[in-house]
Write the structure tokens for this entry.
Amino acid sequence: MAERDPIRRLVQAFARLPGIGEKTAARLAFFLLDADDRVARELYEAIAEVKQKIRLCSICCNLTEADPCRFCSDPRRDGRVVCVVESVPGLMAIERTGEFRGRYHVLHGVLAPLDGVGPDDLHLRELMTRLGAGVDEVIVATNPSVEGEATALYIQRLCTPLGVRTTRIASGVPIGADLEYADQVTLSRALAGRRDMGGP
Amino acid sequence: MAERDPIRRLVQAFARLPGIGEKTAARLAFFLLDADDRVARELYEAIAEVKQKIRLCSICCNLTEADPCRFCSDPRRDGRVVCVVESVPGLMAIERTGEFRGRYHVLHGVLAPLDGVGPDDLHLRELMTRLGAGVDEVIVATNPSVEGEATALYIQRLCTPLGVRTTRIASGVPIGADLEYADQVTLSRALAGRRDMGGP
């Protein structure tokens, strides 16, 4: 804030990004200083544009230029099934499977009491509003972490009194993985979640 | 360029930075989207400011807000010794030693014929201009890489006819390192550069 030297100010601004330390920040700053003006201009224009144009979809809280977003405004998608995700990259990961034709809801976080993130900090109110309008199933696709599981449980408790079915994406050994290298928790989950293959 | 989606445009702009791949770029973009507006504003303002305010020192080609830069305008520094570095981070590294009280010259690169970088692409003309004006010694502090050595040799050939002494920073085993783990080239250099310790 009080930093007057423009180069140091830029280094500090880069260092505030996740996964970028002081040294990387300095490297990025000097790269921009040495690079063509166009490279720097495209970056700062893109940052300014994204903060100006991108907002939350008023229905599902996805990041979008148009409100409602392309998923909420697509009449071919099934509004009776809502997939709840932690973040937009999570939404994009599910969309890439090509298997899901319902709608989404983005929480923009998970319950994390230790970090001071409670239910009011997530976009749960918007989810509740939707549940009254013909939603049959909520698929909770938060990450299989402690916080993700707690959030899933919280959502299930919100949905059940309203008569909405709540499901959770399966956890287990990833396809292509080797049991030998799977961690114990994942293996325990895979055992507990075993499914009948038919037969007597 | 033709990209219309603001989020994808930002991801592409980040991915153009060195050491930042598609996935990291996406992570940074979504971080900025979710973060406080202030974080993004500080970053793009810092980039815009740096490109607007920072220019090359007309004497030593250091990056600076004021021309000449603080090293060239400091009367307590010895203008008879000029330390030539590849880049501003190199200059800062030498400055951090606190041992050098001469002036600097920043090449902004090294000779790299394979990458199409020739003598005209470095700030050698500015260096030549300075050599006439009371410079006794040029310390070449380019990196000890193939390109850095070639550049050092090139500078030495420029300086010698003008009667300017050229020196090269020492290469060898870094302080605190273990000989067992030093690479062969470094060890050969350390042997070749051995110095008398006194005695008969």
Summary: The helical segments of chain B are 6-15, 22-34, 37-53, 88-97, 124-131, 146-159, 184-192. Chain B touches chain A through 45 residues (CB under 8 Å). Residues 6-53 of chain B form a domain with the Helicase, Ruva Protein; domain 3 fold (CATH 1.10.8.420). The longest helix of chain B spans residues 37-53.
